[in-house]
């Protein structure tokens, strides 16, 4: 089968023939239909410091996908051949304290699909049945391909109750955009989102942000005034990993404000801890998705009319992966999809 492989410890990816993955007991073999390109895949392609420390080659990359079940291993009774499925890309140990307590997203021994084991940018992928999410109601294939990052957005956006609240999102990449849509849908009073890309801010307006602010020429405080807020934002969703975004967010929260932080900073940086203490701000780190409460929420949010289609801005056949990766790396558009059936 064809697969996108990181062959050697150097920049780049190759589309090569590899053996189809073997189906062990409890496994599900999935024919991949479409995949989403994630920031993680861009790191692996460019072979940055994180990738050098994390990835062993050769590796089939990719973890965001939708596909069709073609075979089930021994003992799999609840997933049928032909089912349309996506996959939770974090494989957990099942034995640690958090796994045993049902808090699998807090597992200390998580292995990432397309990171710690062969992934989904291929014509076939194998996953344990416990990581397979069956789409029980029809979902747009492109949207189904990005359930993994949609889950990051839902997990972050719904970390704190936001009905009637004023929400600030720093970073209008695909996950920030999806979080804005979720916050709106879930009843926030206002959702302000910041970025430095006009293209991304335009997508944010399309998806329903109350105010999409370019922080290269306006401050978050300016945005607060424009929205008519008197005491600051109630909820902050940090999606950029950038020190200045986190600092500016902290400076613009109301007393008792709550921040969910998904953006991954690349290094240590100082913040105003005195302000966090005296404003009694809560900060919660978010990683992955709750298994499988977040997945349930994603499915029912879409059933309830949440529209994510404006977030998807690039569609390519898998042979055009170089163009697709360049598009995803541009930092201007939304989500980029690879079609594995063309
Ligand atoms: Zn991802
Ligand atoms: Zn565990």
UniProtKB/TrEMBL annotation:
Belongs to the zinc-containing alcohol dehydrogenase family. DOIA dehydrogenase subfamily. It is an enzyme of class 1 (oxidoreductase). The record marks 148 as: Important for catalytic activity for the proton relay mechanism but does not participate directly in the coordination of zinc atom. Zn(2+) 1 binds at residues 38, 63-64. The gene is tdh. Transmembrane segments: none annotated. Its main location: cytoplasm. This is L-threonine 3-dehydrogenase. The active site is at residues 40, 43. It catalyses: 2-deoxy-scyllo-inosamine + NAD(+) = 3-amino-2,3-dideoxy-scyllo-inosose + NADH + H(+); L-threonine + NAD(+) = (2S)-2-amino-3-oxobutanoate + NADH + H(+); 2-deoxy-scyllo-inosamine + NADP(+) = 3-amino-2,3-dideoxy-scyllo-inosose + NADPH + H(+).
């Amino acid at each position: 089968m064809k697969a996108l492989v990181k062959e050697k410890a150097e920049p780049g990816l190759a589309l090569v023939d590899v053996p189809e993955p073997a189906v062990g007991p409890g496994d599900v073999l999935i024919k991949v239909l479409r995949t989403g390109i994630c920031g993680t895949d861009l790191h692996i392609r460019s072979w940055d410091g994180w990738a050098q420390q994390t990835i062993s080659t050769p590796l089939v990359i990719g973890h965001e996908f939708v596909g069709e079940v073609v075979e089930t291993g021994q003992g799999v009774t609840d997933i049928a051949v032909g089912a349309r499925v996506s996959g939770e890309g974090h494989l957990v140990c099942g034995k640690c304290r958090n796994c045993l307590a049902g808090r699998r997203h807090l597992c200390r021994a998580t292995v990432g699909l397309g990171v710690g084991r062969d992934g989904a940018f291929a014509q076939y992928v194998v996953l344990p049945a416990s990581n397979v999410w069956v789409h029980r109601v029809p979902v747009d294939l492109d949207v189904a391909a990005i359930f993994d990052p949609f889950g990051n957005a839902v997990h972050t956006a719904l970390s704190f109750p936001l009905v009637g609240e004023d929400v600030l999102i720093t970073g209008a990449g695909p996950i920030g955009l999806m979080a804005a849509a979720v916050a709106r849908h879930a009843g926030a009073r206002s959702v302000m989102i910041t970025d430095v890309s006009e293209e991304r801010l335009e997508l944010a307006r399309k998806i329903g942000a109350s105010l999409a602010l370019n922080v290269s020429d306006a401050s978050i405080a300016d945005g607060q005034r424009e929205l008519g807020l008197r005491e600051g934002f109630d909820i902050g969703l940090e999606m950029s990993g950038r020190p200045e975004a986190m600092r500016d967010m902290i400076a613009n929260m109301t007393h008792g404000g709550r921040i969910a932080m998904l953006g991954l900073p690349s290094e240590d940086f100082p913040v105003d801890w005195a302000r966090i203490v005296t404003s009694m701000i809560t900060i919660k780190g978010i990683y992955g998705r709750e298994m499988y409460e977040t997945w349930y929420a994603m499915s029912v949010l879409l059933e309830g009319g949440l529209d994510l289609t404006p977030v998807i801005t690039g569609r390519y056949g898998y042979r055009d992966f170089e163009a697709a990766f360049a598009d995803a790396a541009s930092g201007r558009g939304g989500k980029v999809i690879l079609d594995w059936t063309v």
